[in-house]
Specification:
UDP-n-acetylglucosamine1-carboxyvinyl-transferase, Chain, 2 domains, four-stranded mixed sheet
């Protein structure tokens, strides 16, 4: 168990370098298994999710060489087509191994995806697309595995019912080695997907994003090795930018790719914030106080669900009432209870929606009582508390709150943060945060 003791109200100033994108890195590592030749990936974050994933690809027969943020993967032979339950429990993207395993070994056995267990992650959208491409897939509830096989994947046209980031990437990876042309309609538009497409095209794939959320893939006989540097992490950028805005504007962010957070920047300006770029660094700051906001999360190009936690902290200090309406996942407000312990004035409310299915991106369960929106009243001074982290993004949110609160807070569940933020405590300590790490 790992815990933080954080003394708040320290002056924060200095530089933070934004790491490589977690959401791209985990998919790029899996994509490297589509070829028998070496693939070198650069700017890979040093996080526990990647370490767990590398162990999985070694278990299926790939060789891995790592030097800091550079990883070389050589999957000459696929010697094992089963991802174990234990491995799946550590790697939420385990279902994505269906693509390289079916493409290269013609069979796969993978467990139900795990991870943060945020909301209803409907894997059936992946399964339906793969079945349309010629895979036979059965789920065995008695052991928790999907059993998949194919005589050879073939191109197909598939339309996603709702936006799915991981589903889009899964079918892209399956289609690159399929016979014929695959057309994905209503495909997700996240920039992380475009970076994966760039990697695959460097490996010899023929993928083109067209207008109207359409992605066209012409299957090729085989892929080859390449070297690819992944984009920086937009979620880290938003996390540290929110901290900079709330803590006085003396934090400078390096490797911040602002073109990937346009909807966040729009909201920053709306609430009275600004930013400036100088010599490759970005500084976020407030001009004249902090205005309230009304946010509804949405698929890209909208305001991303991963950004709403840090934004909620920012709004606790705004002059007035703010709202956040979460439409991507259910149960994404795991941080609310913890912030209320610290004195935050937050309450749930029922937003007005005309139709549940068209408003929300997750599957509707009529037996579930949903809490999809919060109202935040500010400005409210925060104080210390004993806190617990329930998932990755909530973890970063709680830490930001502790950094701006009066007194000393004890935070448990820090291992969630290590899944997606490289050396989070060390980077914050380097800009003046007083954080003690306790490992038991």
């Amino acid at each position: 168990m790992k815990r933080y003791i954080i003394k708040g109200k320290n002056k924060l100033s200095g530089e933070i370098e934004i790491s490589g994108s977690k959401n791209v890195a985990v998919k790029a590592v899996i994509a490297a298994c589509l070829t028998e030749e070496p693939v070198t990936l650069q700017n890979i974050p040093e996080i526990s999710d990647i370490e767990a994933l590398l162990e999985v690809i070694e278990s299926i027969g790939a060789e891995v060489k790592r030097s800091g943020r550079e990883i070389t993967i050589e999957a000459k032979n696929i010697s094992n087509t089963t991802i174990t339950l234990a491995e799946g429990a550590r790697v939420r993207t385990s279902s994505m191994f269906l693509s390289p395993l079916l493409a290269r070994a013609k069979k796969a056995k993978v467990p139900n995806p795990q991870g943060c267990r945020l909301g209803a992650r409907p894997i059936e959208r992946h399964i339906e697309g793969l079945e349309k491409m010629g895979a036979q897939i059965n789920y065995h509830s008695e052991d928790g595995y999907y059993y998949a096989s194919t005589n050879g994947l073939k191109g197909a046209t598939y339309r996603f019912e709702k936006n799915t980031h991981t589903g889009t990437e899964t079918l892209i990876m399956a289609a690159v080695l399929a016979v014929g042309t695959t057309v994905l309609e209503n495909a997700a538009e996240e920039h992380e997907i475009d970076d994966l497409i760039s990697l695959l095209n460097k490996m010899g794939a023929k993928i083109e994003r067209q207008e109207g959320r359409i992605i066209r893939i012409e299957g090729v006989e085989k892929l080859h090795g390449t070297t690819h540097e992944i984009v920086s992490d937009s979620n880290e950028l938003v996390t540290f930018a929110s901290l900079a805005l709330i803590s006085g504007g003396n934090i400078y962010l390096k490797n911040a790719q602002l073109q990937n957070v346009k909807s966040f920047l729009d909201e920053v300006r709306q609430v009275g914030g600004e930013w400036e770029e100088n010599e490759g660094k970005v500084r976020f700051f407030l001009k004249n106080g902090l205005n309230p906001s009304s946010i509804t999360t949405a698929p890209e190009p909208g305001f991303k669900t991963d950004w709403q936690g840090p934004w909620a902290i920012l709004m606790t200090q705004a002059n007035g009432e703010s709202t956040i309406h979460e439409t991507i996942y259910e149960n994404r407000f795991g941080y609310v209870t913890e912030l209320k312990k610290m004195g935050a004035k937050i309450e749930y409310f029922d937003p007005e929606v005309e139709d549940f299915e068209s408003t929300y991106n997750f599957n509707h369960d009529p037996n579930t009582m949903y809490q999809q929106a919060i109202r935040i009243s500010g400005p409210t001074p925060l104080h210390n508390a004993v806190l617990n982290i329930t998932d990755l993004r909530a973890g970063a949110t709680v830490v930001i709150a502790a950094l701006i609160a009066d007194g000393e807070s004890l935070i448990s569940g820090v291992e969630h943060i290590d899944r997606g933020y490289e050396k989070f405590d060390k980077r914050l300590q380097d800009i003046g945060a007083e954080i003690r790490v306790i490992e038991e």
